[in-house]
Design brief:
Order of helices and strands: HEHEHEHEEHEHEHEHHEHEHEEHHE
CATH class of one domain: Alpha Beta
Number of helices: 13
CATH superfamily of one domain: Response regulator
Radius of gyration: 40 Å
C-alpha cells in the first residue's frame, strides 16, 4: 500500500514537473518573440532613420547646389574685364556727391563694380579750375579707361586733356553742354565726350516762385563769372522772367571769398534769392542763407540737397538719379557697346517740387497747404553737416 501510494506521488510529481517545464518553455518562447519583435522594430527604426538622414543629406546637397548656381549666376553678371576710371569732381557739396554716388551705382547695375572689377581714382578740384585741369591731365597720363567729369568746369578740363587720345570722357551735372562746347546744337558730341545735363527747369521755377510770392517783383541771382553753366542759365532766366512779372538782379563773383560781401549787398535789393547750380555759390550756400534770413527773404534752390540745408523750395533735380543715368551711359562705353562720340548727351526727364517748412517758418513765411501737399518731398527740419 505504501509502495503504491509512493508510486502515485512520484507520478504526480513527475507530471507537475513536466507541466512546470512546459510553462517555463512557453515563457521563454514568449520572451524570445518579444525580443525578436523589439529587434525587428529597432531595425526598422534604424532603417527609417538612415532613410531620413539620406533624404536630409540629399536636400542639403540640393540646397548647396542651388546656392552654388545662384552664386555662379551672380558672378556671371559681373564683367570679366578689369577697368580703371578717374572721377574728377569740381566741388564738394551734396548734389555733386549724390551724382558721384549715383554714377557708381549705375556702373554696378551693369556689372562694373568698384572693388571687384573696377578701380576708381577720385579727385576733387575744390572749386578751382586750374586744379581741375591738373586732375584730368594726370588721369590721361595714367592711362585710365574713362574719365567721369562731374560739373561743367571739370567736364571742359577733362575734354581738353583727353583730346587727341583714346580716353573717353563721360560728364554729368553740366547745365549747358552746348555752351560749354561739349556738344553741337543738335546735342551731338564734339569729340569722344558725352554725358548728362542738369539743365534747370527755368519756367517751372519761375512759376513756383510766383505762386509762393504773388507780390514779388525782383529775383536776385548770385553766380560765378568763370562758370559757363551759370551764365547760360541766367540768360534763360532773363529771357523768361518778364512773362511771370519778374526782374532778374544778378551779382557776379570771381571766387568764394567774394561771396559774403556780394550776398550781403544783393539781399537788400531783391524780394528773394534764386540759387542756381553754380558750384562756387553752392559751396558757400550757408553764407547766402545767413544774409537772406537776416533780411527775412526766402532763398529758392535748384535741387533737393539745397532744400534740405535751408532753401524754402525748389523745382529741382534728383542728382542721385542723374548720376545713375550717367553711369548707365559710361557702362555702355566700357563694355564696348557704344562709343562716347556716337551718343548724344541726355537730360533728366522731369523736375520735382521739394519744400522745407522749417526754412519757411524761420523767416515767417506762410506756405499754402496746396503747395505743400503737392510736393514730391517735404522737409520739416534744416539739416546742415
Amino acid at each position: 500500500m505504501k509502495k503504491k501510494m509512493l508510486a502515485t506521488l512520484l507520478t504526480a510529481s513527475m507530471i507537475m514537473t513536466v507541466f512546470t517545464g512546459c510553462g517555463d518553455n512557453k515563457k521563454s518562447a514568449e520572451d524570445g518573440a518579444v525580443e525578436a519583435t523589439s529587434e525587428a522594430t529597432e531595425a526598422e527604426s534604424t532603417e527609417a532613420e538612415a532613410e531620413d538622414s539620406a533624404e536630409a543629406e540629399e536636400s542639403q546637397e540640393a540646397e548647396s547646389s542651388e546656392e552654388a548656381e545662384s552664386t555662379d549666376d551672380a558672378t556671371a553678371e559681373v564683367s570679366d574685364e578689369e577697368y580703371t576710371i578717374g572721377i574728377s569732381q569740381f566741388a564738394e557739396h551734396g548734389s555733386l556727391d549724390n551724382c558721384r554716388e549715383g554714377f557708381l551705382e549705375g556702373l554696378a547695375n551693369n556689372g562694373i563694380v568698384e572693388g571687384e572689377n573696377l578701380t576708381v581714382h577720385f579727385q576733387n578740384a575744390q572749386a578751382d579750375t586750374a586744379t581741375a585741369s591738373q586732375i584730368s591731365d594726370a588721369f590721361v597720363a595714367d592711362g585710365v579707361d574713362l574719365i567721369c567729369a562731374i560739373a561743367t568746369p571739370s567736364a571742359m578740363s577733362a575734354y581738353n586733356s583727353a583730346m587727341g587720345t583714346k580716353v573717353p570722357v563721360i560728364f554729368s551735372a553740366v547745365s549747358d553742354p552746348v555752351a560749354a562746347e561739349l556738344a553741337d546744337e543738335d546735342g551731338k558730341p564734339v569729340g569722344n565726350v558725352t554725358g548728362t545735363s542738369d539743365a534747370l527747369a527755368v519756367t517751372e521755377q519761375l512759376q513756383m516762385i510766383r505762386d509762393m510770392l504773388p507780390d514779388a517783383t525782383k529775383i536776385g541771382i548770385l553766380y560765378t563769372t568763370s562758370e559757363t553753366n551759370s551764365e547760360s542759365t541766367i540768360a534763360q532766366y532773363k529771357e523768361h522772367a518778364a512773362d511771370y512779372g519778374f526782374e532778374i538782379v544778378e551779382s557776379g563773383i570771381n571766387t568764394l571769398a567774394d561771396l559774403d560781401m556780394a550776398a550781403a549787398d544783393l539781399v537788400s535789393k531783391v524780394d528773394c534769392i534764386n540759387n542756381l547750380t553754380d558750384n562756387t555759390v553752392v559751396s558757400g550756400l550757408q553764407t547766402v542763407l545767413s544774409h537772406a534770413n537776416e533780411q527775412g527773404i526766402p532763398v529758392f534752390g535748384s535741387e533737393v540737397e539745397q532744400v534740405k540745408v535751408g532753401c524754402v523750395a525748389a523745382m529741382g533735380l534728383d542728382y542721385k538719379q542723374l548720376g545713375i543715368q550717367t553711369g548707365d551711359m559710361a557702362a555702355k562705353v566700357l563694355l564696348g557697346e557704344a562709343e562716347a562720340s556716337e551718343m548724344n548727351f541726355e537730360v533728366i526727364d522731369q523736375p520735382s517740387l521739394y519744400v522745407n517748412t522749417a526754412a519757411a517758418e524761420k523767416i515767417g513765411m506762410t506756405l499754402d497747404e496746396s503747395v505743400v501737399s503737392g510736393a514730391a518731398e517735404v522737409y520739416d527740419e534744416i539739416t546742415v553737416d
